[in-house]
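The instructor's notes for this session suggest beginning with a concrete chain rather than abstract definitions. Hand out the sequence below and ask the class to guess, before any prediction is shown, which regions might be ordered.
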Amino acid sequence: MNDIKDPKKPMSFYAIFKNLLPYIKPYKFIIIGSLFLTLIGAGLAQVNALVLQYAVDSVNTIVSSDSELERGLGVLTWISIILLGKEVLVALITFCQRYLGANLRISISKSLALKAVDRILTYRMAFFSAKDNDAGKLQTRIDRGVESLTRLVNNFFLDIIPLIANAILALILMFQSNLKIGAIALLIIPVFFYITILQGKKLRGWRENHRHYREAKSHSILNILQSISVIKSFNREKIEAGKQYDLQDQITENQLKTSKTGFLFDGLKSFVEQIGVVIIIITSAYLVIHGEMTVGAIMMQVMLYNNVSSPIRQLHRIYDDMNDALVYSEGYFDVIHADNEIEDRGNQKAETFDPTFIIKNVDFTYPNGPKALKDVSLTIEKGKITALVGLSGAGKTTLINLLDKFYTPDSGTITLGGIPIDQIDTEFLRDHVGIVMQKNHIFEGTIEENILYGRPDATHEEVIEAAKSAYIYDQIMEQPKQFETLATQLSGGQQQRIAIARIFLKNPPILFLDEPTASLDAIATEQIKNSIDAIKKNRTVVIISHSISQIIDADIIYAMKQGQIVEHGKHEDLYKQKGVYHDIFDASARSLNIVKLAQTFDIDGDGKIDIMPNKSYIEDESIDDHYILGD
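After discussion, reveal the predicted structure:
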């Protein structure tokens, strides 16, 4: 990977084409066919100049010698046949070249896009948490990179090579006709290219700025769309619009500088080209006067020079495009060559799976962020419920991220069943883990497709059972298309239960529950709590919740503060310690106004709290009519 862009040294064209080679090789026969047609096309491009010389000299001879009309008509007939035949061949070759070019362009674009997807799916979570890898920026980098690299291939094989072949052949014919004229044309070409190279160097910095501006613009617009409800609720439309105006002003200023410089260099190159035409005309006229060249040869030389200068004129346009593409190509290769970001997959798989985690002296720091865990040690036992409690930012979710290998600890060890977690095959581990988060992602697609994400080979009957277990089945059946309804049309609470249904379908031995009922109403919370209580049985469960009811029955509770474990034990023991857990528990009770609730439910006035069960979802007749929870 020596060709990856160095932060201080931009990628060269050679490095980019070397990286592109694996994507080009499968289409070598298309390229060979295109090059063959290019050679034929370059030869045909010179026909007009040669025919013009023949026509002018022949007509001049006929006129000066008073030859008969029939001879003149014969010359015109042959000229017409040659030119018309040439145009037919050019049309056929152009069609074939464009078809092959489109085939090559579309195929390589597909390969590059799929490669980017394949690569980013292998990267660890830290890659996506990095400052410059926001979703909008990554999307722009990949999209523009694929577009630029595709244009680069198209320019090189379908534009540059034909133009160079055309210019070289025209130059050879100029030398063959007259060495002096050929030398003049040859001397002008380096001047032209030198100006073009200076232009590319001058514009490169502004083009890189433009790339960063485009990424920032895509990210900021995406941020507006994602935050539109917050923006409107605070009446901050003008502030957000102002940010966009400032960014657009910077983009506009950068574009104007680029255009101004480009126009100046283009004008200079056009001047050099026309100077060449003037010199060739004057030199050719001088040679005609001295009898070293015919009048027809003047016409031919001017047309041949046009065949030299016109490709070069187009080459500088393509060179500008390639310099522009170079900036975005680097961004693309930065993404797909981030080898140090590839997730460590491990290779060990256990036939008999022991879902017991042991965490010892673990430290962890997020990329570009503060230290999230400090010397954390705990044991998550098989078949037991482990609760993590603490204020927001205490490190609870971070710990779950480490257990599922989303991130790697800075130091310390994590073992699962006695095996270091970094040695366990990641796919095997995640097949045995189910995660329900505070906000679960719902994919574009139907309800059934979203539930099937838990186990794609499940039957429709199993999907129905999972939906029932998650208490979402009845609401699904109320939808016009039932399980074929688009999942994104559901409410937030319904989407949360769809995510929980995935876990029921997956049926893993390890469960990570990160505020699983945070998006649900009171009735739904109670329903989901009962369904989660059912799925907890005989599993290793780690639960994070600010809800007392979710954690009070845990086998062991770990209280966290500022990335450290400060207390652990059962509910009763921790509460008596009057530490972090005691404060969180009391705060939770006060937030629920537990005293007023107790007075409300003390129906008999006997100091006992009678709570009637919700019979809308409890079908077990063995359950008592009420629960006596205590004094």
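Then share the key points. The CA atoms of residues 434 and 561 lie 26 Å apart. Residues 593-631 form one domain.
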